[in-house]
Amino acid sequence: MPDFQRSSVWDEDRIKSLIASVSRAFPVGALMSLDTGGPVNFKPRPVEGAPAEACTTSPQSLLLDGQQRMTSLYQVTLRGKVVETVTPKNKRVKRWFYIDIAKAIDPSVDREEAIVGVPEDRIERADFGRAVTRDLSTPEKEYAELMYPVSQVFDWDMWQDGFTDYWSGELHKEMREKFRTFKREVLENFKMYRVPVIALDRSTSKEAVCVVFEKVNTGGKPLDAFELVTAMYAAEGHELRKDWYGDKHIKGRHQRLADACRSASSDTGILAGVSNTDFLQAVSLFYTRGLRQIAEQNGKKGKELPAVSGNRQALLNLPLSAYKRYEAQVEHGFMQAAKFLHMLHIYRIFDLPYQSQIIPLAAILADIGDAWEHEANRAKLVQWYWNGVFGELYGSAVESRIARDFLEVPSWLMGGPEPSTVSETIFRNDRLKTMRMRLSAAYKGVNALLMKEGAEDFRSGQKFDHTVFFGENVDIHHIFPKDWCKTHGIKPAVFDSIINKTPLSYRTNRIIGGVAPSEYLRKLEKGNNSTPPISADKLDNYLRTHLIDPVLLRADAFEAFMEDRQKRLLHLIEQAMGKEAYSGTVPEEGEDNSAFEDGSETELVVLPTEQR
């Protein structure tokens, strides 16, 4: 098998079903193989359980699909050792498999009922092990029970001789006839069984192999480019999987990234969601850009230039030499990305607007090095990041944008034109009304912006830096509580908007409860046994850091508050994106405007510079 094939254990019931199908000459599906010697050079490894010396010579072909079926059949029929499997309840067990001869030749019995799995010592017990219900620990006991070991379906002569001796004489003629029938109707099916094989010749491309395997591997974890690249690098002696996952002696890159900027009170850092293919994508950006630069130096132009890319095809064409050249630089870029995100007050994966945007961010930071720490460059990077978030550009089909940003942003930092992620972004004012779900990148972005701008907790007055964020269990909470809104007939589509939410500590939110703002503000001012009183002026200042008008909140003026805070939040987003609001209408397909039913509001749209 190719080395990317994962070790797997089929459960006991599936193995029994497979044995039953073969014993009746029923089809078990086609296999797929790949001839070796072509552009796809995978390191081979033996079928699970086969001796290591099975791969001492180069194989003629590799098994792409059918691993679990072939592994199970090999282990139960040819290996001659107990089979490690799992029960339907996922308990790991060791089993020998048998065919009940009497049941197998009885046409009224379902063949799967004739397939039996017994423990490693071949003794079945009941009553918590105190009673033996079946003992197959010797060949004589197998003969007596008419139980044929599947491990001998290809070599039955010796077993048959022992069976014949055991059931010798005229009185046992019927038993011997049963075995002859069994051999003819069951064992011969194993010997003569044929499986169709789809053979891919050596000219098959890497991408085709990847696509084919994804299509046929529907039962397990989908194969990704990392697995294929791992197998190709293994053929050159490099352990990519060890690079990423490490071992008991070495911490892998995945763990190093997950630990980056991790808080003592958090299990994982902001980079814990970075996948192995994300990392390969970033490396591929550098490699493919290098190919493009060489082509430019050779006078190539336009469509003659190779694309800068991190797509699957690019990953499959990423040579080991390029990986080794850029891996340390790219890892450093991801580490810097963690610092950058913390600077923006994005601390948890849960609050990360886009996982995919980390790839170009890390690649850009890896490319420019310490230059990102210069104030002017940092301001531009922040602007680019927020345009990606509030333009909601990294939600799907992001491969081309990742490559474009990797080319355009560093050039912009050196005085070139604005990247398209900045110049082409539009943010609609009414989008704030429809930001109600945590899945929204822009929703998470508003929360981070408020903390970045210095929002202070209503109760403690603390700013939400890294320590306070985790120590006080900060999250997004309603300003006008849900219970109060429901009591006053306000629809969830309105009060669940980000306009009515802000970052607060867990303890503060408990004090707020479900009462009117005017009431919980009085509770905060009065204090309690664990919280000192707060002056009205100081509390008003805390509210202003959240872009809340204290007068409107104290008056419980929900509609006026929503209108006022929407304008304030819009201004905050404009500052982050570096763009002004423009009055006009730009319809957005499929948008739900039911939150504000009169439909009379004028939309404010942030337009690209060239359209203003």
Question: Count of DSSP helices?
Answer: 27
Tell me, briefly, the overall form.
elongated
Helix/strand/pairing class, anyone?
alpha+beta
What is the β-strand count? 14
Reported for the largest beta sheet, the result is: 4 strands, antiparallel
Question: What's the end-to-end separation, in Å?
Answer: 60 Å
User: Which regions are unreliable across 5 or more consecutive residues at pLDDT < 50?
Assistant: 218-222, 583-612
- How many domains make up the 3D coordinates? 3
Radius of gyration: 33 Å
Which percent bin holds the helix content?
A: 40-55%
Polypeptide structure, described:
- The protein has 612 residues and is an alpha+beta fold.
- It has three domains: 181 residues, no CATH class; 163 residues, no CATH class; 181 residues, no CATH class.
- It is built from 27 helices and 14 strands.
- Strands 3, 4, 5 and 8 form a four-stranded antiparallel beta sheet that branches.
- A hairpin with a 4-residue loop joins strand 6 and strand 7.
- Helix 4 packs across helix 5, helix 11 packs across helix 13 and helix 13 packs across helix 14.
- The longest helix is centred in the middle third of the chain and has 24 residues.
- The two termini are 60 Å apart.
- 38% of the residues are buried.
